[in-house]
Design brief:
alpha+beta; 5 helices; 13% strand
């Protein structure tokens, strides 16, 4: 149980530190290529959900984010009593770490801090700005799906 709660806490704390650093030290929309341009560091305020969906309805997005985080937290708590299910518990932990981070941003800042994009791929892919929480949510969800097929 401690392991899974630690995963959530580490993701949340690392993201909080990264987002605070970006907020204090980078200009909005500033682009800094790293890794030979494969990754672009850039500060972006996402006022909606993924790809700014719902940006004009920030309060609804925040409420949905809180509700979904609470539902997944309930599932996570129930999973802790299950024997085995390591992949499910790990996936839920990773997903919740990312979800709590982005939900915190929506409630505290009124936007989510995104801070990197990819310098490769289609122009649409290059335009999207991410944070680590986005990938934690994706990876966690994939682990949950895979755990369901075992």
């Amino acid at each position: 149980m401690i392991l899974y709660i630690s995963i959530i806490a580490v993701i949340f704390i690392v993201e909080l530190l990264l987002k605070n650093y970006v907020e204090k030290n980078r200009e909005l929309h500033e682009k800094i290529p790293v890794a030979k341009g494969l990754i672009i560091l850039r500060k972006y305020h996402n006022e909606g959900a993924f790809l700014d969906l719902g940006a004009k309805r920030k309060q609804i997005v925040a409420v949905v984010s809180v509700v979904l985080s609470l539902v997944v937290t309930g599932i996570f708590i129930m999973s802790l009593s299950m024997k085995g299910s390591t992949l499910l518990k790990t996936g839920l932990s990773i997903l919740l770490g990312g979800a709590f981070s982005n939900t915190y941003d929506r409630l505290k800042r009124k936007y989510v801090v995104d801070y990197f994009s990819f310098g490769i791929g289609t122009s649409k892919i290059k335009k999207v700005v991410y944070n680590i929480s986005d990938f934690c949510i994706l990876i966690g969800a994939l682990c949950i799906v895979i755990a369901g097929y075992k």
